[in-house]
Structures are given as C-alpha cells and as structure tokens.
Amino acid sequence: MDKAESRRTSSNDSDTVTYDSRQAKQRASVKWLLSKAYNNRVPETVKEPFYRDHEDQEHLKPQLVHSLANAELYCQALSNIYSDPNYHNLNNWGVLQVLARKGIYINDAHLTETVLIQTNPIKLGAHVSVMEALMALYAKEVATPDRVLAAVQRFSQSHQRPLPADHEQALLLWVNEANLALRERIQQEAKSQG
Question: Could you give the CA distance from residue 75 to residue 8 in angstroms, rounded to a whole number?
C-alpha cells in the first residue's frame, strides 16, 4: 500500500481523520483469511498481519506475502472449510479452479496466476478478490437455506416459510426475522414495564 492510494479525509475542528476504505477492506480480508487458514488459532507472529516501515507506510508482513503468493493460506482455508487435507497441495490456479467448480467466479479480468504469484510488489487487490471469493464460498457452505430456516424457526413465531432459494436469500430472511423478533421482544418488555 503506497501513499498514492486514494484516501478520504474528513476534518472536525482540530482533528483530521484519515480513513482509507481500501486499506480497511484489505486488513479485514487478510485477517478473515488468517482466521480460516489457522482454524481461528492465528499464530501470534501474524495476528497483526501488517507492519509500518520507517516512512510510516503499512506493508503486509513478508511471510504472509509469500504464503499468499504460493497459495498456502488459501489451501489451508479450503482444507479447514471442507475438513479435507486434499486441498493442501494446490497452486493459485488450482484454488481458482476449485472456486469455479463450487460455483464461485471471480469477475476480474486482470486476475491471473502470474499476478497472484507476484511478490515484489504484491498485488494485494488481486488477492483480496480471491479472499472475497473464499468468503462467498464460506457463506454459501455455512448458510445453507435449510440451516438458516431451522435457525429462524427457533426464535421466530412466524408461520412456516418456504425454503429460501440460495444462501443470500437465506441470510436476508434470517436478518429480517431476527429484527422482527427483537422488535417484538422490545415491545413486550416496554409493555411489561410501563
């Protein structure tokens, strides 16, 4: 990440707060990948995946740069998501093929294996695209419509609902029903107190 990256600045009287949404997205994506790759037991050495250099620029730690370039972190994440050690020996192209076979496509024309193996400088934007695809795969595998519907039925008094079409619809159903249930609970508590 260099100084040329776009930054939005908002100023409050004497404070100037700089917020870089791309940097925040990169940080969150890398931390999510680390949590999946290490099964929520991220080593202390990489819990904070970025460091600041003498010019106060933030960089991804070298061991993580290499683990992304050789697809090690992606393979570990896939192995943990599916509890299958057969994913450990993939290269970046193999990871992209697995994602495509699972119905997750990355619509980035500039994403190639050559870009993903580049380490100096690392093309973190390309890697974030792969991380987002892994997040979509994880959501698709974890938030299956039947699981979400079963969870909704545990806290919602609503009538039987049809099975959502996909994981996105299932998650929207869960959010909506959770909000309705919370609203009903707050209203009941307000009635009992007043």
Answer: 35
| Angle (CA) 82 85 87, round 5° | 75
Quickly name the fold that domain 8-142 has: Actin-binding Protein, T-fimbrin; domain 1 (1.10.418)
Question: Beta-carbon neighbour count of residue 177 at 10 Å?
Answer: 20
Q: How far apart are CA 158 and CA 70, in angstroms?
A: 49
22-41: average pLDDT: 95
Give 108's pLDDT tier (boundaries 50, 70, 90): confident
State the residue for tokens 């620029």. 57
Q: In angstroms, rounded to a whole number, what is the distance separating the alpha carbons of residues 63 and 110?
A: 24
Burial bucket for residue 38 (CB in 10 Å: 0-12, 13-18, 19+): middle
**How many other CB atoms are found less than 10 A from the CB of residue 49?**
21
Q: Is pLDDT at 15 greater than 80 in this prediction? A: no
